[in-house]
Amino acid sequence: MTRKLSFILLSTAVLLSTAACGPTRNSEQPTPAPNTNANKETGGQQGDNMPPKPNQLKIWAPENEMELKSMREITARFTDETGIKVEVVPFNPREQAKAFSLDGPAGNGPDLWGATHNSMGRNVLQGLAEPYRISEERIVQYSPEAIQAVTINGEIYNLPMVIETTALYYNKDLLPEPPQTWEELEAFSETFTDASQDRFGFLIDATNFYYANMFMQGNGGYIFGYDEKTGYDANDIGLNNEGAVNGANLIKSWFEKKLIPTSINGDIMNGLFKEGKVGAVVNVPSGIKNYESSLGDKLGVAPLPKLANGQRPPSFLGIKGLVLSPFSKHKEWATELALFITNDDNAASHFEIAAEIPARPGILNSDLITGHPYFSAIAEQAKYATPTPNNPEISQTWEPMKNALIFLSQGHDTKEVLDEAVAQIQEQIAINNANQ
Description:
Blueprint: H1 3-20, E1 56-62, H2 65-82, E2 85-91, H3 93-103, E3 112-116, H4 120-125, H5 136-139, H6 144-149, E4 151-152, E5 155-156, E6 159-164, E7 167-171, H7 182-192, E8 200-203, H8 209-217, E9 222-227, E10 231-238, H9 242-256, H10 266-274, E11 278-283, H11 288-295, E12 299-302, E13 316-324, H12 331-341, H13 344-354, E14 357-358, H14 361-364, H15 367-370, H16 375-382, E15 386-387, H17 398-409, H18 414-435
Parallel strand pairs: 1-2, 8-11, 13-15
Antiparallel strand pairs: 3-13, 4-5, 6-13, 6-14, 7-11, 7-12, 9-10
Protein backbone atom coordinates (compact mmCIF):
# COMPACT_ATOMS: atom_id res chain seq x y z
CA MET A 1 0.00 0.00 0.00
CA THR A 2 1.36 3.42 -0.91
CA ARG A 3 1.86 6.15 1.64
CA LYS A 4 -0.73 8.26 -0.21
CA LEU A 5 -3.41 5.57 0.06
CA SER A 6 -2.55 4.98 3.74
CA PHE A 7 -3.05 8.66 4.48
CA ILE A 8 -6.40 8.75 2.64
CA LEU A 9 -7.85 5.70 4.42
CA LEU A 10 -6.84 6.92 7.86
CA SER A 11 -8.02 10.45 7.17
CA THR A 12 -11.43 9.22 6.00
CA ALA A 13 -11.87 7.28 9.23
CA VAL A 14 -11.11 10.37 11.27
CA LEU A 15 -13.59 12.47 9.30
CA LEU A 16 -16.36 9.93 9.76
CA SER A 17 -15.76 9.65 13.51
CA THR A 18 -15.69 13.44 13.88
CA ALA A 19 -18.94 13.87 12.00
CA ALA A 20 -20.61 11.25 14.22
CA CYS A 21 -19.86 13.29 17.33
CA GLY A 22 -21.70 16.43 16.25
CA PRO A 23 -24.88 17.33 18.17
CA THR A 24 -28.21 16.77 16.53
CA ARG A 25 -30.20 20.00 16.59
CA ASN A 26 -33.85 20.44 15.74
CA SER A 27 -36.73 22.76 16.53
CA GLU A 28 -37.73 20.73 19.60
CA GLN A 29 -34.44 21.30 21.40
CA PRO A 30 -34.21 24.29 23.75
CA THR A 31 -32.15 27.24 22.63
CA PRO A 32 -29.35 28.50 24.87
CA ALA A 33 -30.63 30.39 27.89
CA PRO A 34 -30.15 34.13 27.52
CA ASN A 35 -27.36 35.71 29.51
CA THR A 36 -29.23 38.43 31.40
CA ASN A 37 -25.91 40.00 32.26
CA ALA A 38 -24.49 39.71 28.75
CA ASN A 39 -23.56 43.36 28.45
CA LYS A 40 -22.02 43.60 31.90
CA GLU A 41 -18.75 42.24 33.16
CA THR A 42 -18.81 40.15 36.29
CA GLY A 43 -15.77 40.94 38.31
CA GLY A 44 -16.09 38.01 40.61
CA GLN A 45 -17.87 40.19 43.15
CA GLN A 46 -21.46 39.58 44.19
CA GLY A 47 -22.88 43.02 43.51
CA ASP A 48 -26.24 44.65 42.89
CA ASN A 49 -26.28 43.43 39.29
CA MET A 50 -26.30 39.78 40.27
CA PRO A 51 -29.60 37.93 39.81
CA PRO A 52 -31.17 36.00 42.73
CA LYS A 53 -29.14 33.07 43.95
CA PRO A 54 -30.12 29.66 42.61
CA ASN A 55 -30.60 26.84 45.08
CA GLN A 56 -28.04 24.69 43.27
CA LEU A 57 -25.48 24.62 40.47
CA LYS A 58 -24.18 21.52 38.71
CA ILE A 59 -20.64 20.80 37.53
CA TRP A 60 -19.12 17.82 35.76
CA ALA A 61 -15.76 16.97 37.32
CA PRO A 62 -13.05 14.46 36.36
CA GLU A 63 -13.69 11.04 37.88
CA ASN A 64 -10.03 10.72 38.90
CA GLU A 65 -10.03 10.16 42.66
CA MET A 66 -7.82 13.07 43.68
CA GLU A 67 -9.22 15.58 41.17
CA LEU A 68 -12.73 14.69 42.27
CA LYS A 69 -11.77 15.02 45.94
CA SER A 70 -10.29 18.44 45.27
CA MET A 71 -13.35 19.66 43.36
CA ARG A 72 -15.70 18.52 46.10
CA GLU A 73 -13.67 20.32 48.76
CA ILE A 74 -13.51 23.54 46.73
CA THR A 75 -17.20 23.57 45.88
CA ALA A 76 -18.07 22.89 49.54
CA ARG A 77 -16.24 26.11 50.40
CA PHE A 78 -18.23 27.90 47.71
CA THR A 79 -21.43 26.66 49.36
CA ASP A 80 -20.21 27.89 52.75
CA GLU A 81 -19.57 31.35 51.32
CA THR A 82 -22.66 31.75 49.13
CA GLY A 83 -25.24 29.30 50.39
CA ILE A 84 -25.51 27.81 46.88
CA LYS A 85 -25.26 24.03 46.79
CA VAL A 86 -23.06 22.52 44.10
CA GLU A 87 -23.76 19.10 42.65
CA VAL A 88 -20.42 17.59 41.59
CA VAL A 89 -20.95 14.80 39.07
CA PRO A 90 -17.97 12.50 38.31
CA PHE A 91 -17.55 12.28 34.55
CA ASN A 92 -14.85 10.92 32.27
CA PRO A 93 -13.10 14.01 30.82
CA ARG A 94 -12.83 12.37 27.40
CA GLU A 95 -16.60 11.87 27.26
CA GLN A 96 -17.79 15.24 28.54
CA ALA A 97 -17.95 17.12 25.24
CA LYS A 98 -19.81 14.34 23.46
CA ALA A 99 -22.25 13.91 26.35
CA PHE A 100 -22.79 17.64 26.70
CA SER A 101 -23.65 17.95 23.00
CA LEU A 102 -26.71 15.83 23.85
CA ASP A 103 -27.46 16.69 27.48
CA GLY A 104 -26.89 20.43 27.18
CA PRO A 105 -29.52 21.16 24.51
CA ALA A 106 -31.89 18.68 26.18
CA GLY A 107 -31.75 20.68 29.40
CA ASN A 108 -30.04 17.92 31.39
CA GLY A 109 -26.48 19.23 31.30
CA PRO A 110 -24.40 20.97 33.97
CA ASP A 111 -23.80 24.67 34.41
CA LEU A 112 -20.05 24.06 34.09
CA TRP A 113 -18.16 21.26 32.41
CA GLY A 114 -14.50 20.53 31.71
CA ALA A 115 -12.51 20.64 28.49
CA THR A 116 -9.00 21.08 27.19
CA HIS A 117 -8.31 24.37 25.45
CA ASN A 118 -7.43 22.78 22.09
CA SER A 119 -10.91 21.25 21.85
CA MET A 120 -12.63 24.61 22.23
CA GLY A 121 -12.64 25.58 18.56
CA ARG A 122 -14.80 22.57 17.81
CA ASN A 123 -16.94 23.09 20.94
CA VAL A 124 -17.59 26.72 20.07
CA LEU A 125 -18.40 25.80 16.48
CA GLN A 126 -20.99 23.31 17.76
CA GLY A 127 -22.57 25.86 20.11
CA LEU A 128 -21.48 24.08 23.29
CA ALA A 129 -19.79 26.99 25.07
CA GLU A 130 -20.82 30.43 26.30
CA PRO A 131 -18.21 33.19 26.39
CA TYR A 132 -17.35 34.39 29.87
CA ARG A 133 -18.04 37.99 30.89
CA ILE A 134 -15.14 38.74 33.23
CA SER A 135 -13.43 42.00 34.12
CA GLU A 136 -9.90 42.69 32.91
CA GLU A 137 -8.88 42.96 36.55
CA ARG A 138 -9.70 39.30 37.01
CA ILE A 139 -8.37 38.13 33.64
CA VAL A 140 -4.84 39.38 34.36
CA GLN A 141 -4.66 37.05 37.36
CA TYR A 142 -4.38 34.10 34.98
CA SER A 143 -1.35 33.14 32.92
CA PRO A 144 -1.29 35.25 29.71
CA GLU A 145 -0.42 32.13 27.71
CA ALA A 146 -3.40 30.32 29.21
CA ILE A 147 -5.76 33.17 28.39
CA GLN A 148 -4.42 33.29 24.83
CA ALA A 149 -5.05 29.57 24.51
CA VAL A 150 -8.70 29.78 25.59
CA THR A 151 -9.55 32.89 23.57
CA ILE A 152 -11.43 32.51 20.30
CA ASN A 153 -12.49 35.53 18.24
CA GLY A 154 -11.68 37.78 21.16
CA GLU A 155 -13.86 35.86 23.63
CA ILE A 156 -12.80 33.64 26.56
CA TYR A 157 -14.61 30.32 26.26
CA ASN A 158 -12.76 28.21 28.82
CA LEU A 159 -11.68 29.56 32.23
CA PRO A 160 -8.14 28.18 32.80
CA MET A 161 -7.70 25.91 35.80
CA VAL A 162 -4.47 23.97 35.25
CA ILE A 163 -1.63 23.86 32.73
CA GLU A 164 0.39 20.94 31.45
CA THR A 165 3.50 20.50 29.35
CA THR A 166 6.23 17.94 28.83
CA ALA A 167 9.53 17.70 30.68
CA LEU A 168 12.57 15.42 30.93
CA TYR A 169 12.38 12.65 33.53
CA TYR A 170 15.72 11.04 34.28
CA ASN A 171 17.27 8.29 36.40
CA LYS A 172 19.86 9.86 38.70
CA ASP A 173 21.75 6.56 38.97
CA LEU A 174 22.39 6.65 35.22
CA LEU A 175 22.46 10.43 34.71
CA PRO A 176 23.58 12.11 37.94
CA GLU A 177 22.94 15.52 36.35
CA PRO A 178 20.29 16.35 33.75
CA PRO A 179 21.75 16.88 30.26
CA GLN A 180 21.72 20.49 29.13
CA THR A 181 21.54 19.80 25.39
CA TRP A 182 20.21 17.09 23.10
CA GLU A 183 23.73 16.59 21.77
CA GLU A 184 24.84 15.76 25.31
CA LEU A 185 21.96 13.33 25.74
CA GLU A 186 22.70 11.72 22.38
CA ALA A 187 26.37 11.28 23.31
CA PHE A 188 25.38 9.47 26.50
CA SER A 189 22.86 7.38 24.58
CA GLU A 190 25.39 6.27 21.98
CA THR A 191 27.58 4.73 24.67
CA PHE A 192 24.79 3.38 26.89
CA THR A 193 22.23 2.02 24.42
CA ASP A 194 22.09 -1.74 23.86
CA ALA A 195 18.82 -2.61 22.17
CA SER A 196 19.44 -6.35 22.61
CA GLN A 197 19.24 -5.74 26.37
CA ASP A 198 16.34 -3.25 26.10
CA ARG A 199 18.69 -0.57 27.38
CA PHE A 200 18.46 2.97 26.01
CA GLY A 201 20.03 6.30 26.82
CA PHE A 202 16.77 8.12 26.25
CA LEU A 203 13.34 7.39 24.86
CA ILE A 204 10.55 9.55 23.51
CA ASP A 205 7.30 8.57 21.83
CA ALA A 206 8.68 10.09 18.65
CA THR A 207 5.92 8.94 16.28
CA ASN A 208 3.40 10.86 18.39
CA PHE A 209 2.98 14.36 16.94
CA TYR A 210 2.27 15.73 20.43
CA TYR A 211 5.94 15.10 21.28
CA ALA A 212 7.49 15.45 17.83
CA ASN A 213 6.11 18.91 17.09
CA MET A 214 8.46 20.62 19.56
CA PHE A 215 11.49 19.65 17.48
CA MET A 216 9.88 20.79 14.25
CA GLN A 217 8.61 24.05 15.73
CA GLY A 218 11.88 24.60 17.59
CA ASN A 219 13.68 24.67 14.25
CA GLY A 220 11.24 27.02 12.52
CA GLY A 221 8.24 24.90 11.62
CA TYR A 222 4.70 25.70 12.73
CA ILE A 223 1.27 24.14 12.55
CA PHE A 224 -0.82 27.15 11.58
CA GLY A 225 0.12 30.77 11.11
CA TYR A 226 -0.99 32.89 14.07
CA ASP A 227 -1.93 36.53 14.48
CA GLU A 228 -2.88 38.01 17.84
CA LYS A 229 -5.85 39.84 16.34
CA THR A 230 -7.22 37.23 13.97
CA GLY A 231 -6.05 33.98 15.57
CA TYR A 232 -4.95 30.89 13.66
CA ASP A 233 -4.90 30.77 9.86
CA ALA A 234 -5.69 27.23 8.71
CA ASN A 235 -4.66 28.20 5.19
CA ASP A 236 -1.10 28.81 6.38
CA ILE A 237 0.46 25.45 7.33
CA GLY A 238 4.17 25.30 8.13
CA LEU A 239 4.63 21.59 8.78
CA ASN A 240 6.67 21.00 5.64
CA ASN A 241 8.84 24.13 5.55
CA GLU A 242 12.61 24.03 5.93
CA GLY A 243 12.50 24.30 9.71
CA ALA A 244 9.94 21.52 10.03
CA VAL A 245 12.07 19.29 7.79
CA ASN A 246 15.17 20.00 9.89
CA GLY A 247 13.33 19.13 13.09
CA ALA A 248 11.87 15.97 11.59
CA ASN A 249 15.33 14.97 10.36
CA LEU A 250 16.59 15.17 13.94
CA ILE A 251 13.91 12.70 15.00
CA LYS A 252 14.63 10.53 11.97
CA SER A 253 18.33 10.43 12.91
CA TRP A 254 17.50 8.85 16.28
CA PHE A 255 15.79 5.98 14.49
CA GLU A 256 18.62 5.67 11.96
CA LYS A 257 21.21 5.51 14.74
CA LYS A 258 19.10 2.89 16.55
CA LEU A 259 18.90 5.13 19.60
CA ILE A 260 15.12 4.71 19.60
CA PRO A 261 13.35 1.52 18.44
CA THR A 262 10.79 1.88 15.64
CA SER A 263 8.30 0.04 17.86
CA ILE A 264 8.42 2.75 20.51
CA ASN A 265 5.23 3.86 22.22
CA GLY A 266 4.32 5.30 25.60
CA ASP A 267 3.72 1.96 27.31
CA ILE A 268 7.07 0.51 26.23
CA MET A 269 8.88 3.71 27.21
CA ASN A 270 7.31 3.88 30.66
CA GLY A 271 7.88 0.23 31.40
CA LEU A 272 11.58 0.30 30.54
CA PHE A 273 12.15 3.57 32.42
CA LYS A 274 10.55 2.20 35.58
CA GLU A 275 12.76 -0.89 35.30
CA GLY A 276 15.85 1.33 35.36
CA LYS A 277 16.86 0.49 31.78
CA VAL A 278 16.52 4.02 30.37
CA GLY A 279 18.49 7.11 31.28
CA ALA A 280 15.77 9.66 30.48
CA VAL A 281 12.32 9.94 28.94
CA VAL A 282 10.08 12.78 27.79
CA ASN A 283 6.58 12.74 29.22
CA VAL A 284 3.74 14.79 30.74
CA PRO A 285 3.34 15.36 34.51
CA SER A 286 0.82 12.55 34.93
CA GLY A 287 3.76 10.13 34.75
CA ILE A 288 5.38 11.44 37.93
CA LYS A 289 3.44 9.35 40.43
CA ASN A 290 4.01 6.20 38.39
CA TYR A 291 7.73 6.87 37.99
CA GLU A 292 8.26 7.85 41.61
CA SER A 293 6.63 4.65 42.87
CA SER A 294 9.27 2.63 40.97
CA LEU A 295 12.37 4.83 41.11
CA GLY A 296 11.92 6.64 44.42
CA ASP A 297 14.59 9.26 45.05
CA LYS A 298 16.42 8.18 41.87
CA LEU A 299 13.84 10.13 39.88
CA GLY A 300 14.84 13.55 38.62
CA VAL A 301 12.84 16.05 36.56
CA ALA A 302 14.30 18.83 34.42
CA PRO A 303 13.26 21.21 31.64
CA LEU A 304 13.83 19.82 28.17
CA PRO A 305 17.45 19.98 26.94
CA LYS A 306 18.32 22.75 24.51
CA LEU A 307 18.38 22.27 20.76
CA ALA A 308 21.47 22.91 18.62
CA ASN A 309 20.25 26.50 18.10
CA GLY A 310 20.47 27.13 21.84
CA GLN A 311 16.70 27.23 22.38
CA ARG A 312 14.62 24.92 24.53
CA PRO A 313 12.08 22.93 22.50
CA PRO A 314 8.70 24.71 22.53
CA SER A 315 6.65 21.86 23.95
CA PHE A 316 2.90 21.98 23.68
CA LEU A 317 1.18 23.88 26.48
CA GLY A 318 -2.13 22.34 27.40
CA ILE A 319 -4.80 24.01 29.50
CA LYS A 320 -7.66 22.31 31.26
CA GLY A 321 -10.46 24.58 32.28
CA LEU A 322 -14.14 25.13 32.97
CA VAL A 323 -16.64 25.69 30.17
CA LEU A 324 -19.78 27.75 30.78
CA SER A 325 -22.92 26.13 29.42
CA PRO A 326 -24.93 28.27 26.98
CA PHE A 327 -27.99 26.39 28.26
CA SER A 328 -27.44 27.26 31.93
CA LYS A 329 -30.22 29.25 33.57
CA HIS A 330 -27.73 30.67 36.05
CA LYS A 331 -24.82 31.91 33.93
CA GLU A 332 -23.79 34.73 36.29
CA TRP A 333 -23.59 32.45 39.32
CA ALA A 334 -21.94 29.69 37.30
CA THR A 335 -19.33 32.28 36.32
CA GLU A 336 -18.87 33.14 40.00
CA LEU A 337 -18.36 29.44 40.73
CA ALA A 338 -15.77 29.11 37.94
CA LEU A 339 -13.89 32.17 39.24
CA PHE A 340 -13.99 30.77 42.77
CA ILE A 341 -12.69 27.34 41.74
CA THR A 342 -9.77 28.87 39.86
CA ASN A 343 -8.74 31.62 42.30
CA ASP A 344 -5.30 31.59 43.96
CA ASP A 345 -6.35 29.93 47.19
CA ASN A 346 -8.26 27.14 45.51
CA ALA A 347 -5.65 26.74 42.78
CA ALA A 348 -3.05 26.14 45.50
CA SER A 349 -5.39 23.73 47.27
CA HIS A 350 -6.00 21.83 44.02
CA PHE A 351 -2.27 21.51 43.41
CA GLU A 352 -1.67 20.08 46.87
CA ILE A 353 -4.46 17.52 46.48
CA ALA A 354 -4.45 16.65 42.78
CA ALA A 355 -0.84 17.55 41.84
CA GLU A 356 -1.86 19.68 38.86
CA ILE A 357 -0.11 22.97 38.10
CA PRO A 358 -2.39 26.02 38.38
CA ALA A 359 -2.78 28.49 35.53
CA ARG A 360 -2.15 31.33 37.97
CA PRO A 361 1.18 33.24 37.99
CA GLY A 362 0.70 34.00 41.66
CA ILE A 363 0.93 30.29 42.43
CA LEU A 364 3.37 29.39 39.64
CA ASN A 365 5.91 31.81 41.14
CA SER A 366 5.27 30.81 44.74
CA ASP A 367 7.41 28.53 46.89
CA LEU A 368 4.69 25.92 46.54
CA ILE A 369 5.83 25.35 42.94
CA THR A 370 9.36 26.78 42.73
CA GLY A 371 10.44 24.75 45.75
CA HIS A 372 8.97 21.47 44.52
CA PRO A 373 11.53 18.84 43.40
CA TYR A 374 9.48 17.85 40.33
CA PHE A 375 6.92 20.49 39.45
CA SER A 376 9.42 23.34 39.57
CA ALA A 377 11.05 21.88 36.44
CA ILE A 378 7.72 21.53 34.67
CA ALA A 379 6.79 25.11 35.52
CA GLU A 380 10.17 26.22 34.14
CA GLN A 381 9.60 24.32 30.88
CA ALA A 382 6.14 25.90 30.65
CA LYS A 383 7.86 29.25 30.10
CA TYR A 384 9.04 27.99 26.71
CA ALA A 385 5.89 26.06 25.80
CA THR A 386 3.36 27.26 23.23
CA PRO A 387 -0.37 26.53 23.37
CA THR A 388 -1.69 23.81 21.14
CA PRO A 389 -3.81 25.59 18.48
CA ASN A 390 -7.46 25.84 19.55
CA ASN A 391 -9.06 26.20 16.12
CA PRO A 392 -11.28 23.34 14.87
CA GLU A 393 -8.76 22.49 12.14
CA ILE A 394 -6.22 21.24 14.70
CA SER A 395 -8.15 17.96 14.84
CA GLN A 396 -7.24 17.37 11.19
CA THR A 397 -3.50 17.35 11.88
CA TRP A 398 -2.99 14.46 14.28
CA GLU A 399 -3.47 11.39 12.08
CA PRO A 400 -1.63 12.65 8.98
CA MET A 401 1.32 13.74 11.13
CA LYS A 402 1.35 10.47 13.04
CA ASN A 403 1.49 8.58 9.76
CA ALA A 404 4.25 10.86 8.52
CA LEU A 405 6.34 10.20 11.62
CA ILE A 406 5.85 6.46 11.28
CA PHE A 407 7.09 6.64 7.69
CA LEU A 408 10.09 8.68 8.87
CA SER A 409 10.93 6.00 11.44
CA GLN A 410 11.02 3.56 8.53
CA GLY A 411 13.52 5.68 6.62
CA HIS A 412 11.33 7.40 4.02
CA ASP A 413 12.29 10.78 2.56
CA THR A 414 11.46 13.54 5.05
CA LYS A 415 10.34 16.29 2.69
CA GLU A 416 8.22 13.93 0.63
CA VAL A 417 6.51 12.51 3.69
CA LEU A 418 5.79 15.94 5.19
CA ASP A 419 4.50 17.26 1.85
CA GLU A 420 2.04 14.37 1.70
CA ALA A 421 0.96 14.95 5.29
CA VAL A 422 0.28 18.65 4.66
CA ALA A 423 -1.66 17.80 1.50
CA GLN A 424 -3.85 15.42 3.50
CA ILE A 425 -4.42 18.02 6.23
CA GLN A 426 -5.47 20.55 3.60
CA GLU A 427 -7.83 18.05 1.99
CA GLN A 428 -9.44 17.17 5.30
CA ILE A 429 -9.90 20.83 6.22
CA ALA A 430 -11.50 21.54 2.83
CA ILE A 431 -13.89 18.61 3.18
CA ASN A 432 -14.89 19.63 6.72
CA ASN A 433 -15.43 23.24 5.69
CA ALA A 434 -17.58 22.13 2.78
CA ASN A 435 -19.78 20.09 5.13
CA GLN A 436 -20.42 22.93 7.56
